[in-house]
Design a protein that fits this description.
With 292 residues, this protein is mostly helical. Helix content is 73%, strand content 0%.
Length: 292
């Protein structure tokens, strides 16, 4: 065997190790969950009973609606706040690193810790938010204990934590744009808004596509914040009255609280198809190229 052949063989061996790990950790459980969704709980044999039961369940449709609401509410807000912070920090002459660190800090903090801090802040009786509202002359709110306010309260926590990541990626995107485009626009007499809308925003499209796709996937998989904000030892997460339940929380409740793993697997199959479809549609719509 020649030296070139031995090098190629060694490379294939090293590539095979992570491939086998990926197949064992990712692909095999996915296939097993897909097959399990066609089994009865505690029984054997092929059945569509889990899917029939799921599509007639009011809680499933509520979790699907809430999941889509989390996407619609949190992703645009994260992008808007992120690009706004990035533009403002770009104009700052001093302490840029300090501002980046302050706004990025929530993203690298534990989601569990942040959720519990916000849970204490949302407390209707002793929370600091109601104390502040009372100081402003505004009546106290129920937040997580209200079916009308709970989903928005959870969304605020998600937006607050994820906006720092969007800001950092937008800053990188802004710094990658050649300065000559801005100088040419100013020479042509473009206003600041025209420069942003006609130059900055189109050239940020790759950054926007990345943040939108990852943000939507993250919102579709929302779990930790809901579990820690609304869960308790006496009740399942997603309350009150399923007003905050997402598809992942619904899956967890079915699989590990009700011990119905085949039904939970059926929900994960639907979630997988939903994430795949949404991602493909986003890439089709958003992935455009601009030339100047």
């Amino acid at each position: 065997m020649s030296l070139q052949s031995r090098r190629a063989t060694t490379a294939y061996i090293f590539l095979a190790v992570p491939l086998l790990f990926f197949l064992g950790i990712r692909i095999a459980p996915t296939i097993y969950a897909f097959l399990m969704s066609f089994f009865k709980n505690g029984g054997t044999g092929f059945t569509l009973q889990n899917y029939q039961q799921m599509f007639t369940s009011h809680t499933f449709w509520r979790s699907l609606l809430n999941t889509l609401l989390y996407v619609v509410i949190t992703v645009p807000c994260q992008l808007a706040i992120g690009v706004g912070l990035a533009l403002m920090i770009g104009r700052v002459k001093r302490l840029k690193g300090f501002y980046r660190m302050v706004y990025f800090l929530p993203y690298i903090t534990s989601q569990v810790a942040i959720s519990w801090v916000w849970r204490l802040m949302y407390d209707p009786s002793n929370g600091v938010i109601n104390a502040f509202l009372g100081w402003m002359g505004i009546p106290a709110q129920s937040f997580l204990q209200s079916t009308n306010e709970s989903l928005m309260s959870v969304s605020v926590v998600i937006i607050w934590q994820a906006s720092g990541f969007a800001m950092l990626i937008f800053i990188a995107g802004l710094e990658a744009i050649p300065k000559m485009y801005f100088e040419a626009a100013r020479i042509d007499g473009a206003s600041p808004w025209q420069i942003f809308w006609r130059v900055t925003w189109p050239l940020l499209n790759p950054t926007l596509v990345f943040l939108t796709v990852t943000g939507v996937i993250g919102a579709l998989q929302t779990f930790t914040q809901i579990e820690n904000l609304t869960g308790s030892s006496g009740s399942q997460a997603g309350g009150p009255l399923h007003s905050t339940i997402s598809m992942v929380v619904y899956t967890y409740n079915q699989g590990f609280s009700n011990f119905n793993l085949p039904f939970a697997s059926a929900v994960t199959v639907v979630l997988f198809v939903l994430i795949l479809l949404v991602t493909v549609v986003q890439l089709r719509i958003l992935n455009r190229s601009f030339e100047y």
